[in-house]
Design goal:
Layout (H helix, E strand, L loop, with lengths): L1 H10 L5 E7 L10 E9 L4 E7 L3 H21 L3 E6 L4 E4 L1 H6 L4 H4 L10 H15 L5 E9 L5 E11 L8 E8 L1 H23 L3 E7 L11 H11 E6 L1 H7 L3 H4 L4 H4 L4 H14 L1 E2 L2 E5 L5 E12 L5 E10 L1 H55 L5 H29 L7 E5 H18 L3 E5 L5 E5 H17 L6 E8 L3 E7 L7 H5 L21 H12 L4 E6 L3 E9 L6
Parallel strand pairs: 16-18
Antiparallel strand pairs: 1-2, 2-3, 4-5, 4-8, 6-7, 7-8, 9-10, 9-14, 11-13, 12-13, 13-14, 15-17, 18-19, 19-21, 20-21
Helix pairs in contact: 7-11, 12-13, 13-17, 14-15, 15-17
């Protein structure tokens, strides 16, 4: 090796050549391995060899050099920034990672004060930390710090600063290790911003939000059957977080809502709650309409949206629910349904009545027209033998037409908007006297007696015209179905609560199925009277509507072949229209 060194020296005489040799050739008397360093130099005539003993103490120096080389290799290739500064923060040495972090070359930063690269708001903390270390109060410190990038962007870092012992000049040095956390910090800021937005949305929403988790465990055991999962969840899920809107829906404060179980929340319909849980476990979500109880006791109708919550291991940890109050919407829908039913019933009734009226008005007018022609022909022929009979037919047809038109006008008035009851003190005896006078000819011609049993000075608070229409129709109806030489009786019973009027006959009577159809809107064929009188059923419909408008009740009792009794009541307290 020395020979090769000498040869190299002759070949390039202007260079100094060094070679380290580790060999047993240079053994000491202790027979230990020695290490020598050989330096060769040509002086123009000779090759001078300088041999240095590198074993023992000199070997330590060599190893220190090797260690120093390894340190700088690690220093320059470290993934985090490392900076050495003097006691005022001026950079003595730095690695490539720190320089790249703030957008410079290492050579650009040597001699620069580290504080000049620091975000202004963080400088004061750096100064206090360095002073505390120089006075011995601190040996090291770790904190979050911002540097300014070359392009003026802020770079976040996790910084650890340590102080080195005094050097031979009595000065301090600092070692600063910097881990770039900018991406992590930006991601954390995004997460916090989104969390803030979610919290804001959660708290400010007009819909009720809540989280439910298990009271006795963190998750649901997967080995349970579906039925067991449903039952366990129904009994152990409790509200762990809710927003203000949910509290307002139920009328509770936060302390009353937190801890409320699913069993309590769905106390009105446990089967629906379990069905909801079944859907959650099988499909992951459910959207039922549910019933709940407000704190003050009234019922609420909610439209809900529920999803299952799972952890990273896909184990069920709870549910998230949204509830919106549709009580008013539900009431509106039900009201519209009710109104639609009423409209349909009214339209059906009108169609039915008008078809009956068209037919029944045509018949008596045809009779009047036909018998009038016969009377005219009889007059021309001087044959008056049948004129009386023809006249009686005309009278009956005219009476039926007048009665039908009266009822039709009354019924039409009830169908107009704005109908109201004109309540006055009505003397029933006087009204019945008017009806008796009006119908005297009809009762006499059929040989039926009308008996009236009314307490003296019997008055009611009612609409006089409506009471007149009710009584006239019921008396006419009783007469129609009475046999000759029979009695129609009107009885009035009055007490402090109401007045009950009963009109009875001993005529042909009705079956229970016929009674059931009396006051409805269904299509029905009216039976002819005992003298083959026609009827439309419109009169009873009017009676029903007028009695109801007074707040009373109307009903019929009958036995086929024995007659019928019609009853109606008028409350003693006047009803508002």
């Amino acid at each position: 090796e020395i020979y090769k060194l000498v040869q190299a020296t002759f070949a390039t005489p202007n260079e100094i050549h060094e070679q380290q040799i580790l060999s047993n050739v240079y053994a000491t008397k202790e027979n230990t391995v020695s290490k020598i360093g050989v330096t060769a130099q040509f002086d123009g005539q000779h090759v001078l060899l300088f041999i240095e003993d590198l074993s023992n103490n000199t070997l330590t120096t060599y190893r220190l050099k090797e260690s120093n080389e390894k340190f700088y290799s690690i220093f320059n290739h470290a993934p985090y920034g490392i900076v050495f500064t003097d006691e005022i923060g001026q950079i003595i040495e730095l690695n490539l990672a720190f320089a790249k972090m703030i957008g410079f070359k290492p050579s650009d930063l040597v001699g620069t004060n580290l504080l000049d690269l620091t975000f202004p708001e963080d400088i004061e903390r750096d100064v206090h930390t360095m002073e505390a270390m120089k006075t011995g109060t601190k040996q090291e410190a770790t904190y979050e710090k911002r540097f300014i990038h070359r392009n003026k962007e802020i770079r976040w870092s996790e910084l650890k600063i340590s102080i080195l012992p005094l050097n031979e000049k009595g000065l301090h040095h600092f070692v600063v290790v910097v881990n770039d956390t900018t991406e992590r910090h930006n991601l954390q800021e995004q997460i916090e911003e989104r969390q803030l937005m979610l919290n804001l949305f959660f708290e400010q929403s007009l819909e009720g939000f809540f989280f439910m988790n298990f009271a006795n465990s963190q998750h649901l055991e997967e080995q349970l059957s579906l039925e067991q999962k449903i039952q366990y969840s129904y009994e152990n899920l409790i509200i762990t977080r809710n927003n203000r809107a949910l509290e307002m829906l139920y009328g509770y404060d936060e302390s009353q809502m937190i801890g409320l179980s699913m069993k309590s929340l769905f106390s009105l319909d446990s089967d629906l709650a379990k069905e909801l849980l079944g859907n959650l476990f099988t499909t992951g979500n459910a959207k039922p309409d549910t019933k709940h109880i407000h704190k003050n006791g009234f019922m609420l109708r909610f439209e809900g949206n529920y999803i299952i919550l799972r952890n990273r291991k896909q184990r069920v940890i709870g549910i998230f629910g949204i509830q919106r109050d549709i009580s008013e919407k539900h009431r509106t829908i039900e009201l519209l349904k009710h109104q639609n039913r009423k409209i349909n019933e009214s339209n059906n009734a009108k169609d039915n009545f008008f078809s009956i009226i068209a037919h029944d008005l045509k018949s008596p007018f045809n009779a009047i027209y036909g018998f009038s022609q016969l009377i005219a022909e009889a007059g021309n022929n001087k044959d008056f033998s049948q004129v009386v009979a023809y006249s009686e037919h005309i009278v009956k047809a005219s009476q039926f037409s007048v009665e039908l038109i009266d009822n039709l006008l009354e019924w039409a008035r009830t169908q107009r908007d704005g109908i109201y009851i004109e309540t006055t003190k009505v003397n029933i005896g006087e009204v019945m006297q008017q009806i008796s006078n009006l119908m005297a000819i009809q009762y006499t011609s059929k040989e039926v007696e009308l008996r009236v049993k009314i307490p003296e000075n019997c008055t009611i608070n009612a609409d006089k015209n409506m009471i007149f229409t009710i009584l006239r129709n019921l008396c006419s109806n009783a007469l129609k179905f009475s046999f000759p030489n029979s009695i129609v009786e009107m009885i009035v019973i009055q007490n402090a609560i109401q007045t009950e009027v009963t009109i009875s006959d001993t005529g042909i009577g009705m079956t229970s199925s016929e009674i059931a159809l009396l006051f409805g809107n269904e299509n029905k064929t009216m039976k002819p009277g005992t003298a083959n009188e026609k009827g439309t059923g419109l009169g009873l419909k009017l009676c029903y509507e007028f009695v109801k408008m007074h707040g009373g009740e109307i009903w019929a009792e009958s036995t086929p072949g024995l007659g019928s009794s019609f009853h109606f009541t008028i409350p003693s307290t006047p009803q508002e229209a």
